[in-house]
Design a protein that fits this description.
The complex is a heterodimer. By secondary structure, chain A is α/β, with parallel strands linked by helices. In chain A, about 35% of the residues lie in helices and about 25% in strands. Chain A folds into two domains: about 220 residues, 3-Layer(aba) Sandwich (Rossmann fold); about 70 residues, no CATH class. In chain A, the strands form three sheets. In chain A, strands 6-7-8-3-9-10 form a six-stranded mixed sheet, with helices on both faces. In chain A, helix 3 packs across helix 4 and helix 3 runs parallel beside helix 5. The two termini of chain A are about 30 Å apart. The complex binds adenosine-5'-triphosphate (ATP) and magnesium ion (MG). The site of adenosine-5'-triphosphate has 12 residues of chain A, from helix 1.
Amino acid sequence: MIETQGLRKAFGKQVVLDGLDLTVAEGMIFALLGPNGAGKTTTVQILSTLIRADGGTARVAGYDVARQPDAVRKVIGVTGQFSAVDNMLTGEENLLLMADLHHLSRREGRKLAADLLDRFELTDAAKKTPVQYSGGMRRRLDLAMTLVGNPRLIFLDEPTTGLDPRSRQTMWQIIRDLVARGVTIFLTTQYLDEADQLAHRIAVLDQGKLVAEGTPDDLKRRIPGGHVRLQFADERSLGLAASTLGVGAGTGARDDEALTLRVPTDGSVQSVKAILDRLDYGASADTAVEDAGVTVHIPDLDDVFFALTGHINMQNDTQNGSQPAKQKGAVR
Amino acid sequence: MSTLALTFRDSLTMLRRDTKHSLRNLMMTVSGILTPTILLVLFNYVFGGAIGAGLGGGIHGSYINYVAPAILIMAVGSGCATTAINLVMDLNEGVINRFRTMAIARSSVLNGQVIGSVIRTLASVVLVLGAALLMGFRPTADLLAWIEAFGLIALFSFAITWMGVVFGLIGKTPAGANSLSLIFQILLPFTSSAFVSPDSMAGWIRWFAQNQPFTAVIDTLRGLLLGTPIGNSAVFAIAWSVGIALVGFILARTIYNRAPAK
Ligand SMILES: Nc1ncnc2c1ncn2[C@@H]1O[C@H](COP(=O)(O)OP(=O)(O)OP(=O)(O)O)[C@@H](O)[C@H]1O
Ligand SMILES: [Mg+2]
């Protein structure tokens, strides 16, 4: 469905995509995972004919995005990172506008709009403008508008950023339903658990390059094991423990701001106990490490990201599966 | 569907969208349409006495007969500014990026705005005319001349509106778009034969006033409505209008198609 080769894009001197090769088969959910500024939106914009690449080729549904943009546009639907609804029209009018632009008859348009409003739980808000919507409602309207054209391939650029856990679940369910109907989904996300939950295949993008590609299980298998995360009360304890355990500074395994250390482990009682014993061992007299909080992580995509890129995935180094409260860009 | 039919249909859809926008923005729309009429009232009752006396009865003696066509042309000029501002605001809407990823006629977004703008400008022209008639404007035109006059205003307004789109595209902010529009809103009307005869102007300004588009259009309008001599003004008026429309149209499309996604 999508095939890119050596896709390159720079804004001025800043190289954003540096030779991107992607293959997305029909009917799957493909997740492009990466931190802020990795080039996710740029990739989506190139594939959805919004901007042109500087080099390389990209084919969508067999059409070249640069040379046959209109053929590509007939196949795709795009829900970008930033809200693409008309704020002066009501929810219903937004959908009817899409129906008109897809050349549906008035009757078909009305029926489709009513169906979509119902399916996305927006019927009560149909006569209101998106300005009066919550972030989640606006996101749903955005996606509903994308669906009017009945696209075979849908781009979703960070569909759940800024949504609360419940709205996220709703969005995930909508995405799964779409795939069940045979739609191909190209999704970007910076949430590792989201890619893990939804995607058939995941590509990890970092600084314009793919650092890994595979099924969620493939990726998880690529790292040795889990880790123990130690939380300290102050810098002194952190420093002591780091030297006792032999964790170098600036490796990413040591986070001076959060006062945490990650120490590899296979997750067994023995190995965890060994780590704690070593801390205890160093704790003679005034070198005691007090108040260390311990969390045991089984391998997750955070670890994959860390193993692949050598740096910790953005701000998200908190509890496994927790959701960073990030509101960026869901609403403009 | 052929490309032309497609463009027509999509442009009509965008015109409906534009109309809804102007209804939602009722205050701005109404004040935009009313401003030229207010201007007419001001000119007639505030300056009319003084300037009218100095005019020495060139056209049937009365000032309203002189100033009404001028305000008609100013209505067209101020349409440029509202178009430019509307366009900037619209292009900042995220939905424009959605349009760019859809298989619709690219130009339809701009076409819809231009047609909507021309309709609003013509509405303000009709209001000015009505008010002028109430204030004693007495055209001598027959039906054909009326139709020609109206046709010319529509054509000129179409041209100026496309330039408004260009100003909106390169102005980037409402303030920027508005400043650029001053060319058609203030600069050209006041350096034309709209309010004073170019013969009374000094040196190079006179040359400019005699040869710029607004003078050609307004002289033609006066001729059609009041029976003053037209000479070759009509040819120039039409040539200027078509030329400006073409340049505006091509520039606007090029800039819009090239503009990167926001
Ligand atoms: N129009 C532009 N002009 C200049 N630089 C740009 C432009 N668009 C993107 N960039 C730069 O390109 C880089 C990649 O941006 P992009 O939006 O693709 O990242 P992203 O992965 O989508 O990030 P995020 O998670 O924050 O949305 C960023 O460093 C950004 O500053
Ligand atoms: Mg992005």
